[in-house]
Amino acid sequence: MKIQAHLEKIEHLEASLVKLSDNTDYEAIIELIMLLASHYVNAAMHKLNTLRIDKDQKHNKMYPVLVREKRLGNDSDEVWTAIEKIENLRPKHVYGSGSNGKYAKEAKKQYEIIKRICRRILNV
User: Fold this and answer.
1) Of 1, 15, 33, 2, which is closest to residue 115 (Cα–Cα)?
2) Which of 66, 73, 104, 119 could form a disulfide with 22 if both were Cys (CB 3.0 to 4.6 A apart)?
3) What is the DSSP string of 43-106?
């Protein structure tokens, strides 16, 4: 997907995110945050020419490209740590019985880290 297409998806998805409540929509928020983070990371890797424009990396396959291959350069570890924290919220609060809105807030906090780094890389 081209960088501009990622950015358009991000804009659309963020517009949906602001409509959700941390306390009642935490499952949707956590899932949406993971999708948004994936779009940002893919766009940033395209910008750095570390991922072909016709190929995108799914969130569950980010570990090798960020941790081993360092495709976001010096920012790879910080972005991976944030993605991992979001990923760790998913089993209990999306698929399981967890029901605490504070985890939506934690996902948003980690997303802001990813967003800040990727926007700097993208110069947007």
Assistant:
1) 33
2) 104
3) HHHHHTTSS-TT----GGGHHIIIIIS-TTGGGHHHHHHHHHHHHHHHIIIIISS---THHHHH
